[in-house]
Amino acid sequence: MENAVFTPEQQHQIMEAIREAELATSGEVRLHVEARCPEEDSIQRAIAVFAHLGMHQTREQNGVLFYLAFDDRRFAVIGDKGINDKVPAGFWDSTKDLLRHHFRQGQITEGLCRGITEAGLQLKAFFPRQDDDVNELPDDISFA
Question: What range(s) does the TPM domain occupy (predicted)?
Answer without folding.
Answer: 4-119
